[in-house]
Write a structure and sequence with these properties.
Keywords: Membrane, Transmembrane, Transmembrane helix. It holds the Pfam family PilN. The chain crosses the membrane at residues 221-241. Helices cover 42% and strands 24% of the residues. It is an alpha+beta fold. The protein has 4 domains: 1-48, no CATH class; 52-215, Nucleotidyltransferase, domain 5 (2-Layer Sandwich), CATH 3.30.420; 217-287; 292-368, General secretion pathway protein M, EpsM (Gyrase A, domain 2). The strands form 4 sheets. Strands 3-2-1-4-8 form a 5-stranded mixed sheet, with helices on one face. Strands 11, 12, 13, 14 and 15 form a 5-stranded antiparallel sheet that branches. A hairpin with a 4-residue loop joins strand 14 and strand 15 (359-368). The chain is rod-shaped and about 175 Å long. The termini are far apart.
Length: 388
């Protein structure tokens, strides 16, 4: 970890400086404050930043511990007490604070830290710590191996092409004994800073190799919960999409089924129309075609009472054949003329005399009358004529 720190520290410092120089920190601070102001006090307490900084400062041989932003001390104890008594005093001051949220900053007296304001080129913004190390011999009476130092960018105006930064330096032989003394008391320091009002300046002069590492189980839990929320969100979206696909598939199946039923209905309607047309055609043909009884009735009316028929036939082609006896068979042709049902009546064979009845035996053939087709409407032929 110590070998990687010199390599990572410039990168982290560059990222930190770029973040501070951007307008994003101010915007997010304002936005977060506005959102927190809308919440009830209890919710604001729950959602507040868990890390609570406590400031430890030595004055007149006594240690004082207070909360950052508060002037009144939480505890005060003499440095002459043994380690157990000092730890007990510190633990009493920390009562009610979650151990995970406890952060302790050691505040140095102002005379122990050398502060210098420098004008550096803007190109040095991303590597202020490294540049300050190069400038240490020129700006202070010490070299970089004799001190611990921190650099912060100031908001004050600077010359064109330059930025104003503040260099804060503390001698190692001043800070190391103090840190060793606190470690011997069992007190772990998270930062070394300077007082500013009721709070702290916001720098850290603590050597990187002595930085403390706090276990953060809540952070791991929060990350796990966040990952679970993301996973649940994806699962919910996937479930929604799956349900939509199922609903679409069901609707498509219903549409296909209705389409098949519609085709069946159309087929049945067409079949019904065809059957109705065929039935109408047969009925019309039947109405137009003379029946056997109709032909017999017409013959009965036209033949004289002295004549009778012995045989009658009517085939599908409309050919009529009838045989009988009449006193004057030759006159039957005139009687059949003008018949609406019989056309082209002629004798078949010769007329013979029957000695037993004294009448003439005949055999005639004729053709069933075919009426001319009538036009029904605009040039469309009717199915057939009617028989009067």
């Amino acid at each position: 970890m110590s070998a990687a720190t010199p390599t990572l520290r410039p990168l982290l410092e560059r990222a930190r400086q770029g973040w501070r120089a951007s307008p994003l920190p101010g915007f997010f601070a304002w936005w977060g404050g506005e959102l927190r102001a809308l919440l009830p006090p209890r919710w604001r307490a729950v959602l507040a930043d868990g890390a609570g900084w406590h400031l430890q400062q030595q004055a007149d041989g006594d240690w004082r511990l207070r909360r950052a932003g508060h002037a009144e001390p939480l505890a005060r104890w003499s440095d002459s007490l043994d380690a157990a008594a000092q730890q007990a005093a510190l633990a009493a001051a920390w009562q009610g604070t979650d151990p995970e949220d406890r952060r302790l900053a050691l505040l140095l007296p102002a005379h122990a830290v050398l502060r210098r304001v420098l004008q550096l080129p803007l190109a040095a913004r991303g590597k202020l710590h490294q540049v300050a190390g190069y400038e240490m011999d020129r700006q202070t009476p010490f070299n970089a191996t004799q001190v611990y130092y921190a650099v912060r960018e100031l908001a004050q105006a600077a010359a064109a092409g330059r930025c104003a930064v503040e260099l804060l330096v503390v001698r190692r032989d001043t800070l190391d004994p103090l840190l060793a003394h606190l470690r011997a008391l069992g007190i772990t320091v998270d930062a070394v800073d300077l007082p500013q009002g009721a709070g702290r300046l916001g720098i850290d002069l603590l050597p990187p190799e002595q930085a403390s590492h706090h276990a953060r189980p809540r952070l791991r839990l929060n990350l796990a919960l966040a990952a679970a929320c993301v996973l649940l969100a994806f699962l919910a979206m996937g479930s929604w999409l799956h349900n939509r696909e199922d609903a679409l598939a069901q609707m498509q199946a219903q549409v296909d089924a209705m389409h098949g039923e519609a085709q069946q209905v159309a087929s049945l309607r067409k079949q019904l129309q065809d059957d109705a047309g065929a039935a109408g055609f047969l009925v019309q043909r039947k109405a137009q075609r003379a029946t056997v009884l109709g032909v017999l009735l017409d013959l009965t009316r036209r033949l004289p009472p002295s004549a009778w028929l012995e045989r009658f036939s009517l085939d599908d082609s409309g050919q009529i054949g009838f045989q009988g006896q009449s006193p004057q068979a030759a006159k039957l042709l005139d009687l059949l003329k003008g018949s609406p049902l019989i056309d082209n009546a002629n004798f078949q064979g010769s007329i013979q005399s029957d000695p037993s009845t004294g009448k003439e035996r005949f055999y005639m053939v004729a053709q069933l009358h075919k009426p001319a087709p009538e036009h029904a409407g605009a040039g469309q032929p009717a199915a057939g004529g009617s028989v009067p």
